[in-house]
Design goal:
This protein is mainly β. The chain has a domain of 173 residues: Beta Barrel (Porin). 9% of the residues lie in helices and 46% in strands. It contains one helix and twelve strands, in the order αββββββββββββ. β5 and β6 form a beta hairpin. The protein is rod-shaped and about 115 Å long.
Length: 282
């Protein structure tokens, strides 16, 4: 009897796992169950590696300079899966702006020193010994590379067109327009106005010498070349023509020029200046 009860108990214990397993087969796999190896279609089988979550790819250890609160977040771009294996591209944000371009120091001021000769033209009435020359200096203000203002003083002397000894002092203001200021050889045009005074020794037919003083006002126009030797030094050559008239008190009663053939008188005169000089900039 005791052996029969033991046999029944043993069979009962052996049948419990089979009954539980049969009941589990009829129920759905609970979410997150460790022993559930079924795929998404409910069919049993081994777990496909392609369906598993991708393993995290370690980022480069060298991340560069630490990002501040004002810096944008890093951008990580994953390439599609395939051959070669997925790669990680880390784009570091640019936090440092490039320095602003350096401003070139523009030399706006200059001192021009020059030698000059007077051009009187050719005429049969001109004295054979006529010729004048002199020196000049001017302050040059160049606010922009293409334009400058020139305030100058010139001293000239020699024998004038009529053969008289003459000394002149002139004050001139000129505007200078540079056509190609970016080049080492610059073409310019200049023009302006000026006043001048002259002391003239006039000798009559009997050898008597009379000193006279004249005052003039007029304008000038010309062109030239400037050769930039360095940022501090340049050389220049220019040709300038002028027209002027007398403005002193004796101009009306004692005209300066008289035509011996017609007897006509005038106080207007003109000529040219050929100048060569050097300019120091700062």
């Amino acid at each position: 009897m005791r052996h029969s009860m033991a046999l029944v108990a043993s069979l009962t214990l052996l049948g419990l796992p089979a009954t539980a397993f049969a009941q589990d087969e009829d129920e759905e796999c609970p979410p997150g169950g460790w022993f559930c190896d079924e795929d998404a279609d409910g069919e049993g089988g081994e777990l496909d590696e392609s369906d598993a979550d991708p393993e995290p790819v370690p980022l480069p250890s060298d991340r560069g300079p630490s990002m501040t609160r004002s810096s944008p977040p890093q951008v990580v771009v994953y390439t599609p899966e395939g051959e070669p294996p997925p790669k990680v591209v880390v784009v570091q944000p640019t936090t440092k702006k490039p320095p602003p371009p350096k401003r070139r120091h523009q030399r706006r001021h200059g001192l021009n020193l020059r030698l000059e000769g007077v051009m009187m033209g050719d005429s049969q009435d001109k004295d054979s010994e006529a010729g004048m020359g002199g020196v000049g200096a001017s302050y040059r203000f160049r606010p922009v590379p293409r334009f400058a203002l020139d305030f100058g003083m010139d001293a000239l002397g020699g024998t004038d067109w009529a053969g008289n000894r003459r000394q002149e002092t002139a004050l001139m203001v000129n505007g200078i327009l540079y056509f190609n200021p970016q080049n080492p050889v610059q073409v310019y045009m200049l023009g302006g106005f000026g006043i001048s005074g002259a002391e003239v020794e006039i000798e009559d037919d009997f050898g008597n010498v009379e000193d006279r003083e004249y005052s003039y006002f007029g304008g000038q126009l010309g062109f030239g070349l400037e050769f930039r030797v360095s940022p501090l030094v340049s050389l220049n050559l220019d040709l300038m023509g002028f027209m002027r008239g007398r403005v002193d008190d004796a101009a009306h009663d004692e005209p300066e020029f008289t035509d011996p053939e017609t007897g006509r008188t005038t106080n207007a005169s003109g000529g040219g200046l050929f100048r060569g000089g050097i300019t120091f900039y700062w």
